[in-house]
Amino acid sequence: MSVGIKICHALKKYGNITVIPDLSLNINNGEFFTLLGPSGCGKTTLLRMIAGFNSIEGGDFMFNETRINEMDPGKRNIGMVFQNYAIFPNMTVRKNVAFGLKNRGMEKQKIKEETDKFLKIVHVDQYADRMPERLSGGQQQRVALARALVIRPDVLLMDEPLSNLDAKLRIEMRTVIKKIQRDVGITTVYVTHDQEEAMAISDRIAVMRDGVIHHCGKPKNIYQRPADLFVATFIGKSNLISAELVQAGSNYKVVFKNGYEVEFSNVRAGTKNGSVVVSARPEELVICKEKDKEKKNGIWATVTDSVFLGLNTHYFAKLETGEEVEIIQESDVEEIISSGSRILLTLNEKKANIFEKEGSNSIMEGVETDINPPEVIFAEEV
Fold it and tell me: How far, CA to CA in Å, does 242 sit from each of 18, 237, 286?
């Protein structure tokens, strides 16, 4: 049986140091939920609090309506997959996967049936009688996943499970993990610092820094409408350009240092005029074609370098306003622009984001974030 997880006002301290000050979160039954953030942000600490490996100094942790704060880790019915696989080197693949079932006193024939089933699910059944030392890193990680799932846990917890694999294998394994999670339908909490990995596998993501969730939502919304500057710069690449925000009738316009003006129809109503930071993804800065340069207003820039990456070419340039930016353009649009060339850039105002200069919060419509869910009434305490 899978469960939903509710966390209300979680507090974690190590002595006088507060790692998680006040965190609330709601993870849905059967959801693939990812805790994403830089090293030291508290994501693994929170995962270990859910698992019962770390103490809880404040707040309430719930599996459905059961409070688990003081519940022994062995009674929480969780499956855990670690960064270093943690499979037993002195046992065959089959015995590793069967270990949890044997510990629970399951009948031998049933152990064999369940073990065979999950070996097939993760596609390592052909290695059932091998020792771990004869497996590749990806195969060992599949064994660790099968061992975690075979006990049919209520929650699957995964702590940086792909960080020890090479780039190609990481991409392969994240596809495997997502497919298995969907097939089994288990509530999964996944920890990573890899933004692309999180975007590829998650139903929802919580972006963390210093024990605080800055944005919690679906990958697409977090990428397109980040809640603040930290999220905008941590998820993917963002070019930050200083400007002034001025109301223009029912809309607003952004005025850059060189006088280039762009009107926005999706700035939140009631926003005050003032200094702002415009965040533009590399694909949201558009290089004007030579024939259009005289017809358009924009920001002039000088190309400092370029990198050809097959489908796209990445350009690095310095704006006349002083900022350095990266631009992505399809490689087949025209010939690669040489370093030292002057280019005219315009902004895709439908996709760009604007943030307060002071406070760094988004002023855009369409920001969807669920950081603090409603309080819950606890029906049962263990």
Answer: 34, 17, 18
